[in-house]
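Re: the request from the purification team.
They wanted to know what the chain is likely to look like in 3D before they choose a buffer screen. I agreed to run a prediction and write the result into the notebook, where they can find it.
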Amino acid sequence: MKLKNKKLGIIGTGKMGSSLIKGLCNSGIILPSNIYASDVYDVALEKMRTELGINVSSDNNYTVNNADIIILAVKPQIIKRVLKSIKDNITSEKLIISIAAGVSLQDIAKELAPETRIIRVMPNIAATVSEAASAVCPGQNASMEDTEITLEIFGSVGSAIIVQEKLMDAVTGLSGSGPAYIFPVIEAMADGGVYEGLDRESALLLAAQTVLGAAKMVIKYHEHPGQLKDMVTSPGGTTIRGLRELEERGVRAAFMNAVIASANRSRELGE
């Protein structure tokens, strides 16, 4: 565990920042006493200090000064302002990790000293239940150890992979926006169950668990989704009838187009 003797700072304790803190504390890969967090919302900070035993402050420079690794979990609109306020305390010994959507490594580097080690990460909202899909993109000054530490951090709240920065828009379209594509699927499946007589609560539970189980099978078995689909589909049975309906409605094309459209919008926002 590369984080064992490190001190970690998190600036911004909204949904993503607080999820990371909770995931790290629950994973045991770092002591809560080695975590420093700062935000403008004192009530939320005090709650985390009491419940988790981390160090908190409303002063971002307190976090920077005490930490070896600083995660910037702030909104893209304010990240430059935050960087300007802490840059004098960021030395070459500190690793900076940004999860601000759409903010490039170059944009961050412009605000800091040339030798600063920077890594950009795109997690998703499933970090709130420790099932995030995160893409890690190291900057030119980041070492292999820096990258491994980052993978360890975000692996504590799900799965993390390394990608080139030019693919971050694709990541945004797929995993960044992806949960929002799946929620209507779960709702629609549950609606179908209700139509067929199930009560709403039961239908929703069955639909959500079905999606969760299918996802776990893809990850565990390392089989092509088409092969897993064939495991459920018997000749002339109920499943093939449902699959034909999905094909006739163009569901697969709709999902592909949703990912592509979101990725294109991400590129537009970054211009």
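For the purification team: The radius of gyration is 21 Å.
Please add any questions underneath this entry.
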